[in-house]
Amino acid sequence: MDTSLIPILLPPPKIEWILDDEFTDTLAAGAVNGTLATDGHSLRTATDGSGKLSQAGGLSVFATGGVGSGNPGRWYPSIPRVIGRAVFADITPAVAASDQAMVGMDTNQTTTIADSIYFRASGVINIVYNGAVVVVGIYTAVNHWICCVMRGAGFFFLIKGGAFAAWTLLLPYYTNSATARFPGMAAASTTAPFTSSFIRVPENLISIIPIASDSFNRAILGSTDGLAVAEVGGAGLAWTGAGAAISGNALAITPTLGNNRIVNGTFDADTDWYKGNSGWTISGGTLNALISSGNPSNSGGLGQGNHTWYFVSIDCVALTVGTFSLDVTGGGDGSPSYNSSGTKTFTLRTSHSGGYLYIIASGITGSFDNVILNTLALTTLFSSLQLSVTNAQIDVEVSALTAGTQCGCVGRLDSAITPANFIIAYFDGSGNVKCDDCVAGVYTNKLSVAKAWTASDHLLLDLLGTAVRLYHITAAGAMTLIGSYTTTITTGLLAGVFSTYASNLVNSFVVWDKNSNYSGLDRYIQP
């Protein structure tokens, strides 16, 4: 028998630990500080002003009645920042009604743990990043395993247990490159009963890489380069989108425009416009107003459809006094209010049907020319990639945004050729961040929050089953949860960039797997 062809199944390499504390020694409340961890060399540093931290039965026990956040708390010696270095622990909150526990890596050995997973009141999970806080999920009073992984700057935060059947990426963040980090866990309030059975830091480094990543730092769009973040990966995915191209090391999308729907938008004759009142006239090739309100309108003979994207432009040749705006349908689908002359351009999605375009005026003296109303071909508003998962975090960096137009990302797109179902998250060009569901071509706005865009702001669209969360991230890394909701769109394997105007630019695009590729972390939480 040729035994050389028989595969030999070897056990996985033994894990070596930088820190391993299994809490196997019994210690009375108040006696934890200054003792050694189970590994025999890691010194425990504890703060326990009211005697509420003890060890018994292989558990670290945090009893209610502590001094406050971070007291009681326990920390271990600092470890240097190394990309992929991780801390693992488990937490079992006794209740989910009050602020419970924090576990992660700290910048010191006292009070709030600066970079941690934070089990808060009302069953809400927060991430503490560089001392700031953002909501990322929910929990119940059952055992949860956590993992915090160092990046060059920032951390990855992952969790398993309770609502998270598999290891799930809660959030990546990329600020704070402080080198000395202290693994630790602490109570989050005076009423924070919880237990833990271990805290560990393996010698092995944990590699988390994106499933799609693009810096757009090249001349031809083609495929992703895998270089948008420090964790190199996600290269070689082909971009779709007829209007997508590289412009100045960024992605730009030039939508396809339909024919101008406005008849006599150049005011060559006194026809086709209902002028509202005697203060409006058409003469000299312009539409003119003299201290007038009223709403001149043009039907174009076609009628505007609901759930349709449009490009609108008008030249305000002169404006002496007053303000004006445009309404594409007569149902409030319109522009910002303008108080100056010049070419005014915007794009929008209608939420009504209507047969007229209106110029909405208030006490105006001025003149107008070159009114344009075009449909935007929906397929040309996206540039997308084929993914293998529906649960993902989609991060888009918008480096340029033209006022009155929209730019962001799309997720769970069903087709690049005949798109009908998808989720879009975007800056609306008027000082808001929005998120829309589109089901069978019908849009529903799910989130709309005032949040002005500034250069290189990010949007992060978090998709997990029916749960949707949207985050705004500044160029400096400050995170804000825009909102969350439940969606019916749970399929669709395309994700990408969404833009309604050619001058909008996307400087980077990243997709992180949410919960499909992290089963290898289980070996670090075994008894």
What features would you describe in this structure?
The chain is mainly beta and 527 residues long. It has 3 domains: 17-207, Jelly Rolls (Sandwich), CATH 2.60.120; 212-256 and 378-513, Sandwich (Jelly Rolls); 280-375, Galactose-binding domain-like (Jelly Rolls), CATH 2.60.120. It is 0% helix and 46% strand. It is built from no helices and 38 strands. The strands form 7 sheets. Strands 1, 3, 4, 6, 11, 12, 13, 15 and 16 form a 9-stranded antiparallel sheet that branches. Strands 2-5-14-7-8-9-10 form a 7-stranded antiparallel sheet, with no helix packed on it. The protein has a 6-stranded antiparallel sheet with strand order 17-38-29-34-35-36, with no helix packed on it. Strand 3 and strand 4 (59-62) form a beta hairpin.
Unreliable segments (pLDDT under 50, ≥5 consecutive)? 1-8
The DSSP helix count reads 0
Would you count the extended β strands for me?
38
Structural class call reads: mainly beta
Q: What best-fitting shape do the alpha-carbon axes yield?
A: elongated
The CATH architecture designation of the largest domain is Sandwich
Q: Work out the helicity level.
A: under 10%
Q: What integer is the average pLDDT?
A: 93
